[in-house]
Amino acid sequence: MTLRIGIDQDGGVPPYEQLRAQISEQARSGALPVGYKLPTVRGLAESLGLAANTVAKAYRVLEADGVIETRGRHGTFVAAAGGAAEREAAAAAQAYAERVRRLGLPEDAASALARDALRAVYEAG
Known about the structure:
Blueprint: H1 15-29, E1 37-38, H2 41-48, H3 52-64, E2 68-70, E3 76-78, H4 84-102, H5 107-124
Antiparallel strand pairs: 1-3, 2-3
Helix pairs in contact: 1-3, 2-3
């Protein structure tokens, strides 16, 4: 398994965002397994023809999202599932469940509302 990145320099999406999105997708799909060691910032920047700051920015955002983790001098790795994004989503789901219960909504109505909201958000974009 190897990291596969393509950067469109002429597109309207900034290179760091293209890099972030592609690494995120590959990590979440399993194409890059948990524990996969990513290239160094400098190494990836050189191989893609990008500035090191561009790669560093993408890595910072990915780390903040819980997709990757930096282990000091050992390098940067794909993080274990159940990272920051899943923890934050679980906390939001818990808060929603508590709120709809206080409002007196039955579970099936609360679930339908959540499904409708998710469908609307994902279909929009």
